[in-house]
Amino acid sequence: MTSAATSVCDFRKLPRPALNRLAAHYGLTPESSLASSSLAVAVSEAFACEAVDEEQVLLGLLRHDASRGRRGSSNGRLEKRATTAAARGGKPSGARGVGAPNGHASATPRNSKRARGMTYGDMISAALKALPSRRGTLEDIYSVIEEEFSAQLNTELEAGPRQVPVWKASVRKIINLNSVRFHRTSATDASGHTIFELAKGAS
């Protein structure tokens, strides 16, 4: 069984100030009492959703290298090819595509998002759209996700006394932290459970 798409970066290794800066960059509004491990999950989710322009990343890395005086002749040739390709709207010849196997440049169109599996944030959005009035409690959202995306969920149990599945813990953290995509309303159901909905402008 596979889990939802995640970043290859381990954000748990970052110090709290760095996590806070990344959270601000992605529009997250974590509470100060939130554990760093939970904040790292939310930052990782936001990072995994971010579209990447591989050409610009390549040029940026080369220019940074050059500014520190470490650029060799091979890097100079590669930067020249990258710059020429950028002017023509293509990929640099001989450049290694970010994440492309065997050193071949990626065939992903410029400025398009790489194909990924659905993130937990995507699943939450889909679940809310499927619910009546496009809103519901966390349990409502769990039910839709479990029914629609069971093959993509990480069902291993979290370490600790709560022993909840990893996917449920991730969904709970993301929906409470990512105020850009999700809105925690002041309404509750008959049992007093908070009702969530998509944030204004979120898809």
Task: Report on the architecture of this protein.
The chain is mainly alpha-helical. Among the domains are: 11-66, no CATH class; 120-198, Winged helix-like DNA-binding domain superfamily/Winged helix DNA-binding domain (Arc Repressor Mutant, subunit A, Orthogonal Bundle). The protein is built from seven helices and three strands, in the order αααααβααββ. The longest helix is centred in the middle third of the chain and has 16 residues, at 73-88. The protein is globular, with a radius of gyration of 20 Å.
Please give the structural blueprint:
Elements: H1 16-25, H2 36-49, H3 54-67, H4 73-88, H5 120-130, E1 135-137, H6 138-148, H7 166-177, E2 182-188, E3 194-198
Antiparallel strand pairs: 1-3, 2-3
Helix pairs in contact: 1-2, 2-7, 3-4, 5-6
State the fourth-level CATH superfamily of the domain at 120-198: Winged helix-like DNA-binding domain superfamily/Winged helix DNA-binding domain
- Care to count the β-strands? 3
Main sheet attributes: strand count, strand direction, barrel closure:
3 strands, antiparallel
Identify the strand order in the major beta sheet.
Answer: 1-3-2
Count of helical regions: 7
Q: Please state the second-level CATH architecture of the domain at 120-198.
A: Orthogonal Bundle
Q: Approximately how much beta-strand content do the residues carry?
A: 5-15%
Radius of gyration: 20 Å
The CATH topology of the domain at 120-198 turns out to be: Arc Repressor Mutant, subunit A
Q: Which geometry do the CA atoms define?
A: globular
Q: What is the structural class?
A: mainly alpha
Average predicted confidence as pLDDT: 75
Order of helices and strands: HHHHHEHHEE
In whole angstroms, how far apart are the ends? 27 Å
Low-confidence stretches: 1-6, 91-115
Q: What percent of the residues sit in helical stretches (DSSP H or I)? A: 40-55%
Q: Supply the CATH class of the domain at 120-198.
A: Mainly Alpha
